[in-house]
């Protein structure tokens, strides 16, 4: 099989690395890829969907896999399908589950799926009246895509109203904030739940936990994610069944009923409150860094699973009885601004660990840190502790100026 992967992050590197280990995969391409994916396959400087489809057709690409949300929301899947090319990911209409929080909230309400009480509006008076009905902390979200940064948690009604006003004025999040979603604050623990879907059927992946805040102890600003681990012991068998039956199945049935069958990765951001799962958000792709810890736990052929999902004949998935922990190593000024390019040195890589490269470029054969989240140190093992120790041992072998990482990944499970 020849496979094209769209994207340039650690997530796409992890997918590529898994595919590279499979006998049936012959050629791998990345568009655009990063400074390290060129070790796994060929990087292509293409982004126009028609040009990518033409490349796929001319180069006998059997399957295209889309990593990030932006091309999905812009309709890359619809363009490939128009040309009868196999592509794994949701259509533009189905990707609205991630693109618009108000679409997602409306969908959840219509299909009777549990989520935080909310109001979605662009009218300040209406929002202000709704805020008056809430108690405790209040969550204010920009409706559109903001790279995970459009969510504010406010301590009281007045600051919530101010935040909503700023968003509506376009000051804080430009067009993405012209409509806002206000929610009650849910207190519990979060899970990242992933299902590979073919429009009707799904298979679940090991349940992960992300660490969104920059600093140890879940302090500091929100980021794209500073580390993840899977499977989490916080997700009991009973809880997984509830998520599968009450959220994933209902979502797939509902999307099909509405004429937008969902094919791709459904990523449910779950908040568990008193053992009940609530949907915080949907994403229509693998999480990053969750993908980096899930890939090493898949025992079967990923190429076959994703091809079957893309062609509506999904079967089962084989998983390893192991754990994986991924620690994101970021540059000095992440998440505030870009840092200076700096060379990465890596000593010998210990057993049962590996690096997924993300924000890197290659100059004269050397890999440079060239982005916010630079790489992910992944450890695997028979226990979570073994996997965590492996990941941190690897962190000690990596060196570049200004590198920073959290030292407490998986803390909720290893208390
Ligand atoms: P979202 O992008 O909607 O997942 O929100 C980003 C983060 O904000 C989530 O991962 C949660 O940590 C937090 N969050 C969002 N909505 C709520 C809510 N209703 N209650 C508590 N925390 C929330
Ligand atoms: N790690 C969370 C995300 O990919 O959105």
Description:
The protein has helices at residues 10-20, 49-58, 69-73, 76-82, 96-99, 101-110, 124-132, 157-168, 237-257, 290-294, 302-310, 384-397, and strands spanning 2-7, 27-32, 42-43, 63-66, 87-88, 118-121, 138-142, 151-154, 180-184, 189-198, 202-204, 209-210, 213-215, 219-222, 227-230, 263-273, 276-283, 323-330, 342-343, 345-346, 353-357, 360-363, 366-369, 373-381, 398-399. With 415 residues, the chain is α+β, with helices and mostly antiparallel strands. A hairpin with a 3-residue loop joins strand 13 (213-215) and strand 14 (219-222). Helix 7 (124-132) runs antiparallel to helix 8 (157-168). The longest helix has 21 residues, at 237-257. The mean pLDDT is 95. The structure holds adenosine monophosphate and glycine. Glycine (GLY) binds at residues 148, 210, 224-225, 283, 287-288, 290. GO terms for molecular function: ATP binding; metal ion binding; phosphoribosylamine-glycine ligase activity. Pathway: Purine metabolism; IMP biosynthesis via de novo pathway; N(1)-(5-phospho-D-ribosyl)glycinamide from 5-phospho-alpha-D-ribose 1-diphosphate: step 2/2. Residues 105-311 form the ATP-grasp domain. It comes from Campylobacter portucalensis.
């Amino acid at each position: 099989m020849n496979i094209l992967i769209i994207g340039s992050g650690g997530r796409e590197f992890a997918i590529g690395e898994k595919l590279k280990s499979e006998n049936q995969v012959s050629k791998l391409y990345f568009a655009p890829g990063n400074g390290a994916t060129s070790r796994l396959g060929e990087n292509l400087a293409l982004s126009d969907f028609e040009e990518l489809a033409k490349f796929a057709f001319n180069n006998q690409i059997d399957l295209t896999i889309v990593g990030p949300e932006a091309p999905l929301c812009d309709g890359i899947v619809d363009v490939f399908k128009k040309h009868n090319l196999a592509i794994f990911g949701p259509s533009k209409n189905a990707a609205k589950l991630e693109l618009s929080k108000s679409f997602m909230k409306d969908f959840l309400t219509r299909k009777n799926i549990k989520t935080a009480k909310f109001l979605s509006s662009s009218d300040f008076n209406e929002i202000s009246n709704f805020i008056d009905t809430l108690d405790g902390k209040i969550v204010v979200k920009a409706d559109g895509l903001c790279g995970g940064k459009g969510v504010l948690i406010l301590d009281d009604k007045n600051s919530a109203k101010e935040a909503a006003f700023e968003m509506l004025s376009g000051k804080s999040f430009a067009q993405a904030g012209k409509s806002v979603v206000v929610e009650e604050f849910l207190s519990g623990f979060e899970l990242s739940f992933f299902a590979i879907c073919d429009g009707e059927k799904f298979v679940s992946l090991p349940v992960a936990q992300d660490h969104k805040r920059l600093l140890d102890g879940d302090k500091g600003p929100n980021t794209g994610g500073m580390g993840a681990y899977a499977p989490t012991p916080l997700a009991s068998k009973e809880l997984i069944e509830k998520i599968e039956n009450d959220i994933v199945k209902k979502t797939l049935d509902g999307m099909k009923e509405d004429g937008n069958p969902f094919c791709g990765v459904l990523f449910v951001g779950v908040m568990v409150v008193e053992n009940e799962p609530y949907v915080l958000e949907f994403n229509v792709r693998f999480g990053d860094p969750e993908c980096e810890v899930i890939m090493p736990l898949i025992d079967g052929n990923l190429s076959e699973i994703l091809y079957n999902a893309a062609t509506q004949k999904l079967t089962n998935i084989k998983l390893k009885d192991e754990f994986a922990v991924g620690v994101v190593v970021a540059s000095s000024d992440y998440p505030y601004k870009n840092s200076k390019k700096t060379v990465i040195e890596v000593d010998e890589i210990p057993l049962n660990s590996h690096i997924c490269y993300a924000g890197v470029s290659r100059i004269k054969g050397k890999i440079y840190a060239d982005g916010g989240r630079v790489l992910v140190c992944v450890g695997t093992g028979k226990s979570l502790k073994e996997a965590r120790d492996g990941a941190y041992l690897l962190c000690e072998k990596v060196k570049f100026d200004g590198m920073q990482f959290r030292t407490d990944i998986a803390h909720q499970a290893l208390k």
